[in-house]
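User: Here's a chain of 355 residues. Predict its fold as tokens.
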Amino acid sequence: MKKSVCIKTPKQEGEKALTLANKLGLINKDLEIRRDEKSIYIPIVRPPLTEELITLKEQATDCEVADHSFPERRKPGISLAQLLEDKFPPYLLPSLPRAIDFVGDIAIVEIPPELETYKSAVGEAILKMNKKVRTVLAKAGAVGGTYRLREFTVIAGEPETETIHREYGCLYYVDVSKAFFSPRLSFEHRRVASLVEEGETVVDMFAGVGPFSIQIAKKHQNVNVYAVDVNPDAVEYLKKNVRVNRVVGKVHPVLGDARQVVKSKLSAVADRAIMNLPEKAMEFVDVACETIKPSGGTVHFYSFVNKSDSLEILAAHFADAVKKSGRSVEKTLFARLVREIAPYEWQAVLDVRIL
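Assistant: Prediction complete.
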């Protein structure tokens, strides 16, 4: 923390004060702006001149000059291209991976074919850039198979695929070679958990190691979440994650195919169903309809769409599948593109109320 002269202004006038202080060249960009319940504190490089202060008070009536302690801004680190510019032919630098997924202390990248002979150098550079990373994995195939797994190649660091991932106060033990896990869905895990109401029963039809289920149970006191997955390794990690996150009794791990599990154990019990199996979710719409209570409930449906496809078309296809299952869509509550998975291909979500 560093003490500095600053402009203190009420929150409701903060935007005006920031804009004007920036125009006057007063803001100290080496320090972070601070906020509390009532005020915003803008670090400045010098006390404002009398005429500058008059101008500020014309825009932000209740602002004043004060002293405050500020954390220093993080300086941008060296880029991957900068680390590798003397190890690569210049024409290959534009091919460097732009996206890195971090699962715990594992970094996962996609190496294009033209960089295959340089993949170890790429991995070592990623280790150097990210001090908390101990393993760098390169994707060695697409997600596939019943268990939605992907093959990886270790290109730097320790030859490990198991890690502990932290997300919104939850811990997830996972082996990325044995169970599907995407850190890019962290916002969705949190968003869906925030929509659940106390007293609900939720069926997480393709639960994996539990990111949706455990978020829900951690956020709510009175819920029952049935977390179903067909992958035995994923369910073992799910059981461990239930224990370490202290949600035993609220999350109930179930090993088995969602269709069979719902038919035998979970028919007409759910206020809410989560369908995070975008490759095949449309094939399981009838299962979601079966698990939702006769009085109705909400389905969170994930699927893949082409960029040219509209969310309205996806919603229409979902509604047709619901109708074929003997139920009806009351309302589409929410729809959005979640993440790009390939050029012109997206994962999308629909939140739908069905009767």
